[in-house]
Structures are given as structure tokens and as C-alpha cells.
Amino acid sequence: MPFLTDRYRRLAACLALFAWPCLAAAAPASKAIVIAHPADLSGPGADFSRDYTLGAKVYFDHINGQGGINGRRLLYRSVDTTGKLSQGVATAHAMREAGAQVLFGISGDQLVDELARDPQWRTAGIPLFGVIAASDGAAGAIPLRASRSDEVRAMIRQLASMGVVNFGLIVDRNRAAETERQIQAVAAESGARITISQRLDGNDPHAPDKLAQIVAAARPQALIVIADTLAAAQVFQRYRPLDPGAFLCAPAEVNIRTLISILGPNTARGLIVSQVVPNPAGISELAREHRKLMEKYADEPASQATLEGFVAAKALVRTLQQRDGNAPDGPLRPQGKWDLGGYTLDFSTGQRASRFVELTVVDRNGRLLR
Questions:
Q1: How many other C-beta atoms are found inside a 10 Å radius of the C-beta of residue 101?
Q2: pLDDT value for 135
Q3: Where are the alpha helices (DSSP H) in the chain?
Q4: Which string of DSSP letters, residue by residue, matches 120-188?
Q5: What is the mean pLDDT of residues 202-207?
Q6: What does the pLDDT look like over 242-293, one tens digit per residue?
Q7: With contact defined as beta carbons under 8 Å apart, do 94 and 42 qualify?
Q8: DSSP, res 366
């Protein structure tokens, strides 16, 4: 709801939060598996989160249509956090107190770290499943996608092979401080270097223009922006006229279609965006299944973010099935190596389940090349 004021956004979020306990109570834990998702549905990350949430809901609806898991329905509810850390923490705690058995798909370095450090979560034993964050070692967190380091490594190695070795970096201030250190280390591995690094304050409307000028003065061959879709678009809009030949790079947390529509084909030309799931329009079994179920349950086009939410939901369902077949009251820990139809999740290493990264490049007509 981008047209609402902050006051009405807060009111809408509060009303949704108050509704949550009633929804959970409507289906007792013995008859439903309660999956809670504090999601940024109207804040800076809304463009990604709305698609991710839709993709997850589609798969959960599909499983419920087949009778659930051993007769137990999946009660999946997302509540808008508006992208604010304090509201995200409060929402997560309210969901826990209302009977959530899984906290699903949380995005944001600070929110994930805050919840992982909270002893109440460790005591409750509620997993943070499918988190989207930079940290690998957050207690109780089960990340699925490739790390941000994996994404940036793929970008830098590809560009380094073309002789691009000097990079500028802009990181949203809400991302973990370790993000900058990780990217510096990744650049060094590839024989490249970050010649200038800046933090972006999303609350400062003048920040994109100021940072674009500061970075452009350093003349890097490529600029990497780690931020949400709108923030990245604002930086790229201001940077491109200052350095028309530079490569522009962004992570999978941006919605590439929205980015192109904001920038236009000329500014977006040559843009490189990493993707952590296969092409949703591709021929893999996973992509075909996703498109089929999107048509059936949502009648919306598939995107990278809807497919990522779909994958996370599918992984959670398999984990629940795995647990219920062994110890229904035991901890929720995925095990083994799974082929989801051309996309593999490997939980046997004790690290991230996927290291899959694919680079997408925007051509002069705004089309996506892989």
C-alpha cells in the first residue's frame, strides 16, 4: 500500500498483528502446523517480499489441497513489518506467543541477528527457517539460498575475467557490517579490489545523489550496490549519467523486472543481477511445477522471488514430512541432500543448503540474458 502514510501503515500492521492470535487459535496446533512469516510487505523490501510470500503461499495451498501433512493443514500467515526492525521483532514475538511453530522466510540482516541472539527463541526451540541474511552462524537459523558472498564472488569473478578489477561498493546501512568485510575478502580472492566503499542511509532522500557523486569521482570500473530494489534503482539512476561505461551490479534481493521498469532500458543496459534460484521461465522440472501451480492458485506471473518463496516452502514441507515420519515432536532439522527438480539443497555439509548463483544481464532492449 505505497499510497498510505506512515501512520496508516503502522495502523494496518497493528490490525494485522492483532488478528494473528485469532487466526492461530482458529486451528489448534494438534490439527494445524502454524507457519508465521514477519514480512516487509509495504516498506523498502516490499517488492521482493510480496512476490516471495506469494510463491510460498502457492506451495502451501497446493499441499493443503492434497490433505496437508499426515492430515494436518499448514496455516501460513504473513504479517507486515513495514521493514522496520522494531516492528519486525515485536511481530515475531507476538507470533511466537500466539503459537507459531516455525518462523519462516525472515529477511534482513539485523532482524535475523536480533532474533537469533534472543534467548527466548532458543528456549522456545522455534526454528528460523529459510532466512535471507548475510550471517551464516545465527543460532536456530536455517538459511537455504546462497550467501551474499557467493553472489558477489560470482559477479566479481565474471567481471575480473573481462579485465574489470576496480570496484566501487555501496551498502545499505541496514545490512550487516560484516557484508563490507566479506565483499572486501571476496574481491581480494579474485585479484580485484574495492577502491571505494560507502554506506547508504535510506532515510536521507539526498543520499543516492551524494553517494553517486562520491563513488563516481573514484572512477571504479564497476559499482556493486547491496540494497533493496528502490534504493538500488535510485543510486543507479544518479550514477549512470556520471559514468555511462561502468558495470552496475545488484544482488538477488532486488526485483530485476521492477528495477528495469524504473530505470528504463537505456540506464539498465548492462546491469548485472545475481539470481539464487533457476530461471523461473526455464525448462527445469522445478520451474515448470512452479509456473503450473502459480497459474492454478495465484494467476500471477512467476518471478525469481516467487520461485524462491516456492522453494523455501517446498523445503519446509519436506522437512516437516521428514520429521513427522521419525519424531513428530522433535526439532525441525532438515537432513540429507534433495533434488527439487533441477535445483539441489544439501543439508549434509552443515553449511548453507545451496550455493547456486546465476548471473542475469540486461541487454539494450531491457531483455534478460543468462
A1: 20
A2: 65
A3: 6-25, 46-65, 85-97, 109-117, 119-124, 148-160, 178-189, 207-218, 229-239, 256-268, 285-297, 304-324
A4: HHHHHT--EEEEBSS-S--TTEEE-SPPHHHHHHHHHHHHHTTT--EEEEEEETTS-THHHHHHHHHHH
A5: 86
A6: 999 899 999 998 888 888 899 988 888 889 999 999 999 999 999 999 999 9
A7: no
A8: S
Domains: count for the chain: 2
Q: What is the mean pLDDT of the chain?
A: 86
Burial string for 117-130 (b: 16+ CB within 10 Å, else e) reads ebeebeeeebbbbb
What cell does 163 get? 579485465
Among 275, 304, 335, identify where a domain stops.
Answer: 275
Q: Which residue segment(s) compose the domain that 196 sits in? A: 148-275
Helix or strand or coil: residue 199? Answer: strand
Shared-domain flag, residues 204 and 302: no
The tens digit of pLDDT for each residue in 292-343 reads: 999 999 988 999 999 999 999 999 999 999 876 555 556 778 888 999 999 9
Give residue for cell 553449511: 351
Residues 50 and 90 in one domain: yes
* pLDDT value at residue 12: 43
Task: Report the C-alpha gap between 301 and 324 in whole angstroms.
Answer: 33
d(CA 44, CA 30): 37
Per-residue pLDDT, 247: 92
CA distance 258 to 305: 12
